[in-house]
Amino acid sequence: SQQGEEDPQALSIQEGENATMNCSYKTSINNLQWYRQNSGRGLVHLILIRSNEREKHSGRLRVTLDTSKKSSSLLITASRAADTASYFCATVRNDYKLSFGAGTTVTVRA
Amino acid sequence: DGGITQSPKYLFRKEGQNVTLSCEQNLNHDAMYWYRQDPGQGLRLIYYSQIVNDFQKGDIAEGYSVSREKKESFPLTVTSAQKNPTAFYLCASSMMDNSFSGNTIYFGEGSWLTVV
Fold first, then answer.
1. Per-residue buried b or exposed e for A19-43, using 16+ beta carbons within 10 Å of the residue's own CB
2. Are residues B90 and A42, on separate chains, in Cβ contact within 8 Å?
3. N or C: which end of chain B has fewer CB within 10 A?
4. Strands A55-58 and A85-92
5. Contact B59 A99 (CB under 8 A)
6. Does B56 contact chain A (CB < 8 Å)?
């Protein structure tokens, strides 16, 4: 079964708008990571947040982590057409098992 | 250049055949992983390895086998026992940090396997 579950499954926004997606997970984690995947390609690492951190920023990306609710969110501000992709959250346990959710497909309309 | 190399990019398999997907990394990473991705779906963990000569089953290990004879190599064999092997396969690696500070996972470009 999937450790992480992203919500929503798909998101369509206008260029310049913000995109927010959520991830929920089931077991204790060491850290949580967000990745982007363009169709038919490998995954590209976006940002990592450790279990003792609550918020992290990287450029136009903002990630939050609430370990009490076992959830995380990824916010992409001022979206661009190039942000069109699938976004996945991945949880890393203390035994280094790395599990992914089903992903959120984001479409940015010009 | 440092990175993870998967080969072949595209592979066709006849029913009943075993095939092996190659994954090599020159990042000196300890941990390596294999994932399967079906169209429009997320990644499902097949096997992972934290150290040479040791590996653990993931969530969908049935019909697959791996070996970790060298730190830089983690080949995946898709056996004839795998009933529906057509998918996109992704290999990944990462450092292992004893302080549990968290390490980025690096992915290869993937291999497409089709059963004909």
1. bebbbbbeeebbbbbbbbbeeeebb
2. yes
3. N
4. unpaired
5. yes
6. yes
3-state secondary structure B15-57: CCCCEEEEEEECCCCCEEEEEEECCCCCEEEEEEEEECCEEEE
CA distance linking residue B93 with residue B110, whole number of Å? 13
How far is the C-alpha of A35 from the C-alpha of A103, rounded, in Å?
9
Query: What is d(CA A109, CA A13) in angstroms, rounded to the nearest whole number?
Result: 6
pLDDT in tens, A59-100: 999 999 999 999 999 999 999 999 999 999 999 887 778 888
Omega within 30 of 0 (cis) for the link into B85: no
- A48-71 b/e (C-beta count within 10 Å ≥ 16 → b): bbbbeeeeeeeeebbbebeeeebb
How many separate helices (H) and strands (E) can be counted in chain B?
Answer: 0, 11
Which residues face A10 on adjacent strands?
A105
CB-CB under 8 Å, B43 with A100: yes
SS3 (DSSP) at A82? helix
pLDDT band for position B19 (cuts 50, 70, 90): very high
Whether omega for the bond prior to residue B8 falls within 30 degrees of 0, making it cis, is yes
Does B95 lie at the interface with A, CB-CB under 8 angstroms?
A: no
**Cα(A86)–Cα(A12) distance, integer angstroms:** 12
